[in-house]
Design a protein that fits this description.
Blueprint: E1 4-9, H1 27-38, E2 42-47, H2 52-57, E3 68-71, H3 79-93, E4 101-104, H4 107-111, H5 113-117, E5 124-125, E6 152-155, E7 158-159, H6 170-173, E8 178-179, E9 193-196, H7 207-219, E10 225-228, H8 234-239, H9 243-249, E11 256-258, H10 266-279, E12 287-292, H11 298-311, E13 314-319, H12 354-373, H13 380-383, H14 389-400, H15 405-414
Parallel strand pairs: 1-2, 1-3, 3-4, 4-5, 6-9, 9-10, 11-12, 12-13
Antiparallel strand pairs: 7-8
Helix pairs in contact: 7-9, 9-10, 11-12
């Protein structure tokens, strides 16, 4: 008998404009959808808590009571959204003739299965990657709207990661590093972008072959760009610098590498950046994952930030949360200053405070603006257009004529312009 399968993505706090963002696409649900369709089952994918009428209108066929409800999860600290979702669908279908069982899978469910089982209404918890669903190409039509298709697709050339970084959950969920030797069979036609969800794409022993395939596809006009969501392992680039040119030629954009270690690692990181630049990338388009609110104290993180400015590269904001943290009520708005460690994780043992976390994030944001546009300093007056474009051009022209930072500051103060120079360390 054909079954009706309801796939559900909880109402995660993702901006509406990012609902189909490449970093948040529910790829696991899309593969499960493809698998169930192949089995002859009827499938609908719902995002958020919907009523029966809304479910009936979604997709093909006016049905709303499923045989199974499969709910995905993401970060452990987004557990409350999963909890709310489970309760909603358990209550929605409790008096129906099918009384469907609810299964929860995904990152939180895999990292904290026992905790997930305690959620009232959860009948089953699925851990890890579904081996059968993994064989299928995602059913993108389940989420495509308007009815324009997505301009990108999600692929894996590997699962797991041979690294065992303490702060990462990948190797705990996918303990075996499994690789594919080719990418072509995974791709679907008509999508210009290819986004890799590999956690360490460069450690794939077949990476050269895969890059050659991508280069060929790009030259044939079948794809236009690629991205590696988790970035590139800079240690592999040090060992095989020739990969950088292939990465560039394959159409990868916004390459990211990680600087998780101490400030004293700066020469190794600088060399990784140089390898990417020699491969063809502009410095300002290179990003560094810089983990803060972790083991490295604020003062040293500021030194790392300033060094990134000297190199002319941008920083990807990475605030650390423990893998077993089941809530995160951090509020980025200014009025929220003064939050406590009861509201979100603050690594107080290493001297981090709410004030330092906000200061570092603010510094990174302002610095990235300077790097992107080639500015020596940041001014909120310029960003928010509190002064005319004509005056801004006049001020910038004058600043280029000044020979030192001190003279620039004197001039800006005379013009009553608020400013901040990225190469100056915060004194918190």
């Amino acid at each position: 008998m054909n079954k009706k399968i309801l796939l559900v993505e909880p109402s995660f706090p993702v901006p509406r404009k990012s609902k189909n963002h490449k970093n948040f696409l529910p790829i696991g649900l899309l593969k499960l959808g493809a698998m169930h369709k192949q089995r002859g089952n009827k499938v609908k994918l719902i995002r958020g808590n919907k009523n029966k009428k809304e479910i009936a209108k979604k997709g093909k066929g006016r049905w709303y009571v499923p045989h199974k409800v499969l709910i995905t999860s993401l970060f452990t600290y987004w557990k409350p959204y999963v909890e709310n979702c489970v309760k909603h669908y358990k209550d929605l279908f409790k008096d129906t003739y099918l009384n469907p069982k609810i299964r929860v899978g995904g990152i939180y469910a895999s990292l904290m299965p026992e905790d997930c089982k305690k959620i009232n209404g959860v009948d089953e918890v699925f851990r890890g990657v579904h081996p059968e669903a993994e064989k299928y190409k995602p059913a993108y039509k389940l989420i495509e709207q308007n009815p324009e298709p997505l301009d990108y697709q999600i692929v894996h050339t590997s699962r797991g990661c041979p690294r065992k970084c303490e702060f990462c959950g990948t190797w705990r969920i996918e303990p075996e590093f499994k690789t594919e030797g080719s990418i072509k069979d995974q791709l679907v036609d008509g999508k210009e972008g290819v986004v890799f969800y590999d956690n360490n794409i460069l450690k794939n022993p077949y990476i050269t072959d895969i890059l050659e395939e991508l280069i060929e596809l790009k030259e044939e006009g079948k794809i236009k760009w690629c991205e590696s969501q988790s970035g590139f392992d800079g240690r592999v680039l040090l060992e095989e610098p020739e990969l950088a040119k292939k990465i560039y030629k394959a159409g990868f954009r916004y390459p990211r590498i990680a600087w998780d270690g101490q400030f004293e690692d700066k020469e190794k990181i600088k060399r990784q950046i140089e390898i990417l630049h020699e491969g063809g990338f502009d410095y300002k388009d290179i990003f560094l994952f810089v983990l803060y609110n972790w083991e490295i104290p604020f003062g040293e993180m500021e030194k790392k930030r300033i060094k990134c400015f000297e190199w002319g590269v941008q920083i990807s904001d990475c605030r650390f949360r423990p893998l077993d943290q089941t809530h995160d009520n951090y509020n980025p708005q200014k009025y929220a200053k003064g939050q406590s460690e009861n509201e979100y994780y603050i690594h107080t043992e290493r001297g981090w405070t709410d004030e330092k976390i906000r200061e570092f994030r603010r510094n990174v944001r302002r610095q990235n603006i300077c790097v992107r546009f080639g500015y020596d300093f940041y001014s909120p007056d310029f960003e928010r257009m509190k002064i005319s474009k004509e005056k801004i051009r006049k001020i910038r022209k004058k600043l280029k004529q000044l020979s030192s930072k001190e003279k620039m500051k004197d001039y800006l103060e005379k013009e009553d312009i608020i400013y901040w120079f990225p190469d100056e360390k915060s004194d918190l």
